[in-house]
User: Fold these one by one.
Assistant:
Number 1:
Amino acid sequence: MSRSSLGLGVVPTHVRRVALGLATLASAASCGGGLQMEPRYVALHNTMTALGMVQSGGLDQGNLSEGQETVTPVDLAGGDCVTFVALGESGVGDVDVIVRDQAGAELARDRTQDAQAATQFCPPYAGRYQVAVHMTRGGGGYLATSWSGGARTYAGPGPGPVEGPVGPVAPPPHGGPGTCDEPWQLAASERRRGNTSTGDSVTSASCISGGTAPEHVYSFVVEQRSLVTASLDSMYDGALYILGACGDLRSELACNDDAPSTSHSEASATLEPGTYYLVVDGFGTGSGEYEVSFAATPLQPPGELCRAATPLVPGQPVSGSTMGQTSSFEGSCAGRGADRVYTLDVAQPSRARFRMQSSHDGVVYVRSDCASASSELACNDDFQDTRHSLTTATLQPGRYYVFADGYASMGSPGAAGDYTLDVELAPSGGTGAAGDTCATAIPYQPGQPITADTMRFADDNAGSCGGQGSPDVTYRLDLRSRTRVRASFGQDSEHPPVMYLQSTCGDARSEVACLSAMSGGALDQTLNPGTYFLVVDGTDANAFGTASVSLQLDDLGALEQACRAAPMIRPGTQVRADTTGSTDRFQASCGGQARSPDLIYRLQVRRRSLVRLSSEQTGWDGVVYLRRDCLDAVTELGCNDDAGDNRHSMVETILEPGTYFVFVDGYAEGNQGPFTLDVDISNP
């Protein structure tokens, strides 16, 4: 290692101008590499000068091999900030600048990984410190100097600098132990340094539940409604949380463990005027040195935000963003992120549907009184996924307030981003559209899916499993033969729907069956020829919107004919066939109900036997099942989807003498193709 010491030592009252640095750079060129780095140094000088900074130290030049470092003692005044800079030659991969105290403890360092380094250090007290230039990767010549003045950039022990003007770092004040009983006082923009190893382990929070690390407690006062953001840089896995009542975990307002690394934590909350408590804690049993501060940004009173709310026009979606906004309101379904508020004027009793699509985990909610959380009428976080929200409400004439918000769990900052918000209104008495009454029931076309939007329909009917007070839409089923009717709800329904079958529309006594989506399952009925009515309804007055229904009508005469025509299979003989071209006539208890095309075979057993049915499918997921009665699903004796993998299925059971029916089907929907089926019979 070679070095030409040119005076890195810094005393802020003794400012050397950049001319000294340039002259020294030129005179040192013969020592190797000085002129090579002169353009970079000039560019550095121009940048630092533009930031309002002046060179406060001379140039330090030398050569270092990988892993080596050179250390220079410097005398610094308390509270002043100095930026140390190092430039490496072409052979340098990564050079770092590190500031340490006299005992060698690291106080600040560069976190980049390239051939130049910069770190700012704001000494908490006047004294002697150590500045090291460390060659982390590569090797070669370097230049180092220092600059003073300009906006402060704190480079703590976290993953990178935290920019912005902050107050001087100070140790915790004397006179109190930093506990809930005697907390240290903390002012906005004031940085405090401490070491939690001197604290007690008394309190905890949601983001470090179960931890036993010691903590320090600070109190702070909020003079007006503000967004408070607390920041912690720690030499250990620290945690930070805000309490309304010290020691009472139920009063937790924000909590954060890692943001984004274990050495930095940040917690934010919208606070009303009052005294609060900021707790510096640790994950698990972690403790050590830290620096903590908080900033308070005054917020507009809710009343002002409400008066400035943007009007919504039904049917005209609006787009916006909550990025850069504060959390001024909160919904009951975890809407504590950044938010925006809109007004909605309703002229007549109406049903309202609110939809929001967002780039983040959004939340939408509705109030009748903008500033009163207790006036909330509806709130939704996720509809189908975290990027969609949907809620409905029945509204009387008046003004309402709609909030575009973001999800936030206990202790985590709320989500924010872009969104599109849309509202629809419909008269609460319905519009008289087709399907609104028994007389205008919509004829069902077999094979067609049903998507019913009940929002614009009247409340005409109710079933035994629900529908009282909810709008409904009616479909007419004209059955010309004995028919099996199967119906189930899709996963994309906008509300918890119900449906019921009646033989006389509007007559609850004629109900054949009733199904609620909340109870799950499917409606499955065998009906004689005639006219029936399928009503799609909701669970309550606000349960309206789209509901998807899968409806299948099977002519039992045709099914009976298919069962009678089923070919006989002989044990020991392999069947080769293909379900492609068949239809979905039968379902099973396994394999996603086996709603794919199927083939049927008859099997005759002459004496009590152990029967093994095994199939192999080529390129598709098959299902094998066995029944005593071809048409009756409750007589199923065995069902298997996967035997080792999804290309094999096997059923093995003991059968008494008689005739049975073997089905080769496909998993769920759309699985079909060629297969082989083997039947083996042996003594049990």
Number 2:
Amino acid sequence: MPLIKIMPDQLASQVAAGEVVERPASVVKELVENALDAQAHEITVEIERGGVALIRVTDDGKGMDREDALLCLERHATSKLRISSDLGSILTLGFRGEALPSIASVSRFRLLTRDRESVAASEIQVEGGVLRDVRDAGCAPGTCMEVRQLFYNMPARRKFLKTPVTESAHVEHEIRLHAMAYHEVRFRFVRDGAEVFDLPSVQRRSDRLRHMLGTETAGDLIEIPTFRGRGFTLSGFLLSASHARKGRKHQCLFLNGRPIEDPAVSRGISEGFKGGLSDGQNPAAWLWIEMDPSLVDVNVHPAKREVRFQNAVDLREGCAHAVSQALQAWHDARSLPVRLVEAKSFAPMLPREVVVAAPASVTPRAWVSPAKQTALPLVDVPIEAVVAPKEATLVTSSAAVPVRERFRFLEILLGRFVLLESADGLVLFDPRAARERIVYEELRSSLEMESQALLVPLLVNVEPREHELAMRHAATLHGVGWDIGDFGSGTIQIRSVPAFLEIADPLEFFREMLDDLLAGGAAVAHQPREKLARIIARRAGLLQVAESRSCMELLQRLFACDLPYCAADGRPTLTEFSLRELERRFGKWRIRGAIFSSRLYECCRNGWIIHCRCEEWIL
């Protein structure tokens, strides 16, 4: 008896559904794309319990007669492709003919459709892939598709779905993507009987973005004029580098009306900023690309999220050029002088300078101090005269000894690290990591942190997935000092902030915190307080600039922690270079036959600088 058998059609449809239908948002995506392909001008999406109980998509498109309505539920039945060469010129959103039969095989499906020439509509009911009823009905021209009890016959798939609130957020995200792609179409979204939004048809893309992003964000939009490249044109909008966020969820790319994700285009957008972005940050952008369909393959991903370009390099360079031009025009329009902010120079405060005498045969040259950039007088001093000052007596490290007696402040390195002197050698101190450890332990040890009420509550517009995440963890956020609430229409109200954080811009801090929470994934769901403490601690580490006095106070607070030598993510807060280690690294210096060993270090250690005029230092 053969082991290999042909799968029944119903089982084959359920297997195909595993690729096409991942969650309720996937169903909404397929049904909305069918409505757009049918040239609909109004689309209404209704869901219940996150789309698991009900998904209903109604449009006023072309509709179908009974024969086409029955055929559309057969596998590989499509009106988009006729011959294999048609794959090279796909301009429709759907073309495989797998979506409807796959959806009908894992739900209780109802199709109600009528074309404009027919008097009566056709109603078809399918349950688990089995046709149950076909009859006449009455409805306006167009199509209405209902999906009830999604995955009712696939409990293994159903148990992996998230909460209704989370699934609703994903559904709303899909609808918003297609609403931005087709601004001339009216979109309505109804969730559990309540209307979430009603986006009217508009003439310009900027008007649709203004409806969706809010007036404040839309006012900062930078328009990308139409750019023509080799076989493509692109246009869109972006926000300045100050609005850059982690991840690419704030980049919306549309290819011939299809929402896509493509790393080459995203890199091109970032390259257009010419290094004006921080590491790990990506700009917010909305880009519409029109391309010859023969230059792109849209049939490389089951859900059609990713595509393959024939000339990806040209497209990336075109994106970079268009973004760069748009930013340059925006800067010129602002007509503001460019202010160059120089980094603060921390000049060392030293008692004096000592110069080692060079042999007479070497022509002396004036040494120029990098800090002052002026010629300094040279004083010839014999090597025997270079004697290190008497070493200060330092107390060995101990938790009971005050920090000011265990360490001596030397200097701040590049405004980032602090150089300290201990009894054993040189200590490099990271104030950011120290502040992270302090804040992290404070958040973990306190059941509820003190909060500072804002005189005027702040409103922040976020995308549906961020809104759902923030509301889900509102109680946890309240425990660490954030008092937030739902203001409606995807807006979050911030009423208070943690009192122990000196936050200059609470909105930006909150947005970045949401980015980190989204990136946390399952770890946030299992340990929200722990993950949130790490995120806030890492953000808090960037708020304080190191100064001499504050560094020593920070050290004192650091050594009161349970684990003072590392931050919450394991990075060290203090690194020590012992005298033995320094001598091993530098070895013995020979200056024209003279041996100079640890005395060089001792002079530098006590505030002396030794310069060589002959540039003949040999290690």
